Structure formats: C-alpha cells, structure tokens
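## retry 2 of 3
previous attempt timed out at serialization; input unchanged, resubmitting
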Amino acid sequence: MPYAVRRLPQRVSVDPAPADAVELDDFTSIGGTTSILWVDAAGEVAVALIRGTLPPEEWPGERGEVDVAGSRAVVGPFNDGRWVAAWFEGEGQRCDLYTMVFYPPVDAEEVELSLASILRNP
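## retry succeeded, writing output
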C-alpha cells in the first residue's frame, strides 16, 4: 500500500493482522482487492484499508468530504455502525480506488483523526 496510517482508534492493535486470520466481509472479500487489516484485542477486524472497489451497493447515508494525503475523499457512516472513507488516487491512465472501513464501536472523531494522519509513502 502506498499509504502510512499514523494514528488508528485506541482499541486497535499496533500491528496489522494477516488477512487469512480474520473473517472477511463485503468490503474485504471483493476479488481483485488488496487489504491491510487491523484488529482489536479480541482479534476482530477494527479497521481495513483496501485498494480496489467498493461493494456493489449505494452509499446508505450522508457523507462529507475530507482530504486524505492530498486526495479528495468522501466519508460517512455506513450500515451497522461502520464508517467508510473512499478516495481515488492517481493520474493519467491509472486511477486507483482506496477505501478505509472503521468497524464499530468507532466515533466520528476517531475516523477524522485517523484519516488526517494518513501520509503518502514516497
């Protein structure tokens, strides 16, 4: 992944978890995607950073705009207490979609702080 996430919600373990160690869902199980998953102390997925597509459904709630490492992103509550941010990155012929999913319990402030902490790796 070309991004470094410097701040995650407090309940998140320090190191990402291997994808085969957690149960995948409608965001993380889409073919052709690459995911980095962070878990909580119980081993449940707490945050996912995904390079690839969004699930084939309409965004169910309101969303706002934020900056993620220089890219315009949309962010807002999804279903079941999840918060989702999505942004396109790239120029020219290739344009990659990135999605960051925050699993409950999480609040808007934690989402905002995490997204603001993201840096683009050189």
